[in-house]
Amino acid sequence: MSQDPLVIFTPSGKRGRFPVGTPVLTAARQLGVDLDSVCGGRGICSKCQVQPAYGDFPKHGVTVAADAVGDRNAVEDRYDRIRGLKPGRRLGCQACVQSDVVIDVPPESQVHRQVVRKAASDRPITMDPATRLYYVEVAEPDMLDPTGDLQRLGNALRDQWDIPQVSLAPALLPGLQKVLRKGDWKVTVALHKPAAEAVPQIVALWPGLHESGLFGLAIDLGSTTIAAHLTDLDTGAVKASAGIMNPQIRFGEDLMSRVSYAMMNPGGEVEMTRAVREAIDALALDICKESGVDPSLVLETVFVCNPVMHHLLLGIDPVELGQAPFALATSDALNLDARDLGLSALPACAQVYVLPCIAGHVGADAAAVALSEQPGRAEELTLIVDVGTNAEILLGDTTRTLACSSPTGPAFEGAQISSGQRAAPGAIEAIRIDPETKEPRFRVIGCDLWSDAPGFAERTAATGVTGICGSGIIEAVAEMRLAGLLDPSGLIGSAEQTGTPRCVPMGRTHEYVILDASAKGGSRITVTQGDIRAIQLAKSALYAGARLLMDTRGVDTVARVTLAGAFGAHISPLHAMVLGMIPDVPLEKVTSAGNAAGHGARIALCSLTARREIEATVKEITKVETAIEPRFQEHFVAANAIPHASDPFPNLLTHVTLPAVSFNTQGEDGGGRRRRRR
Amino acid sequence: MSQDPLVIFTPSGKRGRFPVGTPVLTAARQLGVDLDSVCGGRGICSKCQVQPAYGDFPKHGVTVAADAVGDRNAVEDRYDRIRGLKPGRRLGCQACVQSDVVIDVPPESQVHRQVVRKAASDRPITMDPATRLYYVEVAEPDMLDPTGDLQRLGNALRDQWDIPQVSLAPALLPGLQKVLRKGDWKVTVALHKPAAEAVPQIVALWPGLHESGLFGLAIDLGSTTIAAHLTDLDTGAVKASAGIMNPQIRFGEDLMSRVSYAMMNPGGEVEMTRAVREAIDALALDICKESGVDPSLVLETVFVCNPVMHHLLLGIDPVELGQAPFALATSDALNLDARDLGLSALPACAQVYVLPCIAGHVGADAAAVALSEQPGRAEELTLIVDVGTNAEILLGDTTRTLACSSPTGPAFEGAQISSGQRAAPGAIEAIRIDPETKEPRFRVIGCDLWSDAPGFAERTAATGVTGICGSGIIEAVAEMRLAGLLDPSGLIGSAEQTGTPRCVPMGRTHEYVILDASAKGGSRITVTQGDIRAIQLAKSALYAGARLLMDTRGVDTVARVTLAGAFGAHISPLHAMVLGMIPDVPLEKVTSAGNAAGHGARIALCSLTARREIEATVKEITKVETAIEPRFQEHFVAANAIPHASDPFPNLLTHVTLPAVSFNTQGEDGGGRRRRRR
User: Fold this and answer.
1) Which of A144, A145, A148 sits opposite B330 (nearest CB)?
2) Regarding beta strands B55-57 and B62-64, do their DSSP bridges make them parallel or antiparallel, or are they unpaired?
3) Is there a contact between A145 and A152 (Cβ–Cβ < 8 Å)?
4) Contact: B360, A324; criterion CB under 8 Å
5) Which tens digits make up the pLDDT trace of A98-114?
6) Under an 8 A CB cutoff, do A177 and B316 touch?
7) Which of A158, A165, A177 is the best substitution to test chain B (most B C-beta atoms within 10 A)?
8) pLDDT-derived band of residue A669, with 50, 70 and 90 as boundaries?
């Protein structure tokens, strides 16, 4: 009794019997095996490469003969000659089943392949992009049965790909006929299908088989910086990353200043919108140029941003975000054309996805962090803080997720700090102060030596020591507290009180001199009382936000803290805790998630499933509005002390001793008044 | 046993019982009675006015008491005081059922009211526009449950109008928040829903109740002229009509010249597209200004045009339409935004609908004629010709419809005629030639006297007699044939041959002098041999096209001829038949349909049902391509004679005698060579 050959696919394990002569691609499709193809089985795209395995497979109960899928045919030979086929590889659309066989589908031949992210803790992204390529052969026009070229293209997609209906981006109409004729009625179309129920739209087309790929930009549009990641929409690989300063800084460093600018200057919001769009255009062109990608291939862009940047990107006056009840114009995710945003670097019909906002002060950037960090899947109650000019704070575990934002201001980014500077070569990024001698030693960006190591001066001669960046100032303030130069209220002691001549008077207060090379024409780098106050304001806001979420959740402690944001990666957990930026947890439970918002943007760029997931998640998140919550003010005031006026830090105290000093002998002006910044 | 009161609506006859106190609008909705409302029953829009009828109604079996719907309430009194309510009218949302009642819904309170068109033969249009107004009250933002303003607007449409999902045109995002606040959270939105399965899109919104209406433009984009009809989308009434010359004339009078221009001049198609779009913008602004309508209220535009104009409007190079196989870039109906067409006079998100094209040479204008004239519903086999620079020809009855186009050239519009001119005051529009004396008498546009009537000179002194328009030249040639001045081959006889000194030599041929006021500084108006040839080419093309459809249908005669086109309205059926423009039918069976293409555009503007109908119809029409059909050439040659070389015209001969003259005594250059024009 003869039976059709058995075909077993790995890694899926899907199996079935097929008549002799069935192409492997056909067998895969019938079994629902995830095997890619752009050309639809014509042997030209090579996306369906498979690896037949030969010999005995007791596990599967089959023995695979050497000729189980026959020999390479002429199409495969030609492909191998011209483009190269790895040893053992076959084209799934050409290799035909002859006898029982085990066929491995390598990851690069899977449509929904998983892309492993860099950090070990990262979840892989399963590729499921909104835009995909389809190669079709279109019927030529027939005078006797006249239909439009577009309709025949639609018929080809229907007949060759089972796509019942498509539309064409109007901007492509003028070029359609030329492309069809140039490709001799064979074309590759890029179809964008943003949702399961949407009619797919042709957003690009090329003559013949398009082999230069498709790309997307994941853009993290921050108040201070704009970061973009150019991503291959086929493989999910990041081709290049680049960042520029947000040119809106000239209208105001923090978000509330920009809202004020729009309120005070008629048309100010239009000016700010134009500035940020121009910057995005420039960034897109730069990153394409740098990586050698034709901008016309960048067919998708995903934006994550805080609510004010969200509105300014969309051309919406942010004035409502500056006053209660902080109403967003729109909170849901948006699908737009690039031209809707006036972006000219990308094709007019390139598609834009903007993640949903969570609340008036909790934006698409926080949603992106939630998408990347998945607080709702955490077994332990996890606090996630994305530290920037505004801090996005999430608290969650499998039972519930809460979110808020807190106006930390730009101090953590080294702004509004007397010796502050951007994280760039020459900036102090780490510092230690000897508790005995009160002498500092430090490291600067661009050199891995400490400043008291031999050779430091030579190695830093080119850059010099120019200032303190965000992570440096956090360490400096924390080290000053640990060294007894700073009391719990945040006052810097005098030389007499501290016993070091590095504490010098500055008006009615004092500053701590880290470095004074001014006599030799170098920098004088100090931490002033004003710097301490700025950091206190920032960290109090951050801590108060976290505390408010904990209150709402009904807890006094959290199990884990994740520091997100580009800057979060550089913060020393110990110093952050000495400062009281974050609640007390075991030090090893404080981890960095890198640029979680940017990661979230990239996930949304690669996966429609992820878009649906975050759209559902944001609706379930408990939103906490810091601006109207009286307890926020209480928490803020209590958090002004370093590390805190009342909350205990038992875990921290197992690592450090906090000197019980007090320098309040004169009428210093208290803890400062809180200014709301966003 | 008491029963709920019986409510009977007229004219629908729908009836049902409702509890005492039920608002009439509620009862109407529950019964599916077509009763309009924009405000959703808040007593402010007055769209739901009804007329209760009182007394005995034996037909319905009820007696209606005087207080059957109670007295006017305060809302109605206020409305009457401020806006006026006709006697007997009530607001359906305020009047509540008290006892049995008969309620008439006047036409203006019906959503799907029928709009009777001017001509008695016209079918009424049932209003079913794609864009409609909805008044909603939107929830104010709530910090504790933050959602975007757009989402709350969507919720209001869902809760107050059962519209589950809407999108917002991106161009409206920047203004959304201001409108909501200006209207104190009460707004009117214009929702565009182009198809049953489409998610409606908000394309405009206004604070409070919007009472200035919505408008649409029906545009007949011809090769020579562009005509627009500004239409009220609520009532279907035409507010104003206006026309301008198509500025593309400077690139070529007929369509093939324009295609050639695009082929010969790189970027020529871009230039032509820009020209026509600018003209449409100017026309839209003019017609709005003239009728006092704010252009921002013109939210829909429907275009009908031939395939070349269709492509040039859409920015598509028409080169493919100039050569076999005459492939359209796209043939299906199109839904676009005004900005897709670069139209700036209208709102960016104003919606455009372009009717489907039938074939490479049979455009959306022919589809519009089919929509207006419904050949597929004709009981008698009907030939419809839309005469313009290109003639659209349809042949149909209830069994089948066929269509073709024929390149008549602009001669019928008075172009390429030596004394030809546009139809304007001073142009000869009708002419009679005495068969005995061969003396002409004529009428000019702007004066209803014939030229031999007393007072003609005085009455036409202001305009003068300046030339011959399209209908005039048809009559002139036909009258020359009837008076024996022209032989069947189209030759003009000499003075000797014809016996009138009005036939004067002109080179080797002759011309007939209608008027010579040149001695007094006036016009000299003649019909030259060249004019006759131009008219022969045009009429032969028209007749050959019609004959080709008849061949395909397998008939030698038709039952009825409909002359469409603005120009068709002015053609004398007798003279058209003498000329042999149209097949022989009883004279009373030749009727004019007015501007059928324009009517079709207006129908599509007012009715989604009509759009679906014509989209289905064009797929069923048998397309006949004149350019490749050998019989077209045969028919063309045979149709060169006046009226025809071989086809009999028995009906015509019951009205006129055709003199059997022949002037071919010298080597005149035959019937001319046919040049293809489109």
Assistant:
1) A148
2) antiparallel
3) no
4) no
5) 999 999 998 888 888 77
6) yes
7) A177
8) very low
Least confident of A43-57, A106-120, A169-183, B316-330: A106-120
Residues of B in contact with A329 (CB under 8 A): 148-150, 173, 176-177
Which residues in chain A have their CB less than 8 angstroms from residue B315's CB?
Answer: 173-174
Residue B440 pLDDT > 50, yes or no? yes
pLDDT at position A373: 93
Return the residue of B nearest to A361 by Cα. B146
Residue B412, token pair as written in the block: 């019928």
Considering A441-450, B121-130, B517-526, the range whose residues carry the highest mean pLDDT is A441-450
CATH topology for B6-109 is: Ubiquitin-like (UB roll) (3.10.20)
CB B503 within 8 A of CB B535: no
- This prediction's pTM: 0.86
From the candidates A172, A176, A316, A330, which should be mutated to test the interface with B, based on the most B CB atoms within 10 A?
Answer: A330
Read off the pLDDT band of A262 (50, 70, 90). very high
Compute chain B's Rg from CA coordinates: 30
A620, B135 Cβ separation under 8 angstroms: no
pLDDT at A570: 81
CATH number of the structural domain A130-207: 3.10.20.880
| Whether the predicted pLDDT of A300 surpasses 90 | yes
pLDDT on residue B504: 96
Statement: residue A443 has pLDDT above 60 = yes
Q: Which helix (H) or strand (E) holds A333?
A: none
pLDDT band at A619 (very low <50, low <70, confident <90, very high): very high
A330/B168 Cβ within 8 A: yes
Residues B232, B217 contacting (CB under 8 angstroms): no
Q: Which residues of B touch A170 (CB under 8 A)?
A: 314, 336-337, 340
> Above 90 in pLDDT, residue A514?
yes
Task: Identify the closest residue of chain A to B341 by CA–CA distance.
Answer: A170
List the structure tokens of B458.
């005085």
- The answer to whether the A6-109 and A219-357 domains have the same CATH topology is no
Pick from B142, B325, B337: CB nearest A143? B325
User: What is the Cα–Cα distance from B159 to B146, expressed in whole angstroms?
Assistant: 18
Hey, what CATH class is A219-357 in?
alpha beta
Q: Cβ contact (<8 Å) for A314 and B144?
A: no
Token reading at A596: 């979680």
Which chain B residue's Cα is nearest to A269? B174
Alpha carbon B471 to its chain centroid, in Å, reads 20
Question: Structural domain boundaries of chain A?
Answer: 6-109, 130-207, 219-357, 367-410+535-653, 413-533
Torsion sign across C-alpha atoms A484, A486, A491, A495? positive
Residue A232 has which token pair? 């291959």
What pLDDT, on a 0 to 100 scale, did the predictor assign at position A31? 93
pLDDT-derived band at A411 (thresholds 50, 70, 90) equals confident
Give the burial class of B598: count Cβ atoms within 10 A of its Cβ; 0-12 exposed, 13-18 middle, 19 or more buried: buried
| pLDDT > 80? residue A415 | no
The CATH code belonging to domain B215-357 is 3.30.420.480
Q: If you measure CA to CA, which chain B residue comes closest to A337?
A: B170
Residue A318 vs residues A250, A273, A321, A673, B552: alpha-carbon distances, Å: 17, 11, 5, 25, 66
Q: Which of B149, B317, B625 sits opposite A329 (nearest CB)?
A: B149
Q: How many Å from the N-terminal Cα to the C-terminal Cα in chain B?
A: 77
How far apart CA A575 and CA A474 sit, in angstroms, is 7
- Beta strand A467-468 with A427-433 is parallel
Number of Cβ pairs < 8 A linking chain A and chain B: 138
Task: Find, among A302, A316, A395, A431, the residue nearest to A354 by Cα.
Answer: A302
Percent with pLDDT over 70 in chain A: 96
- In whole angstroms, give the CA distance from residue B363 to residue B386: 12
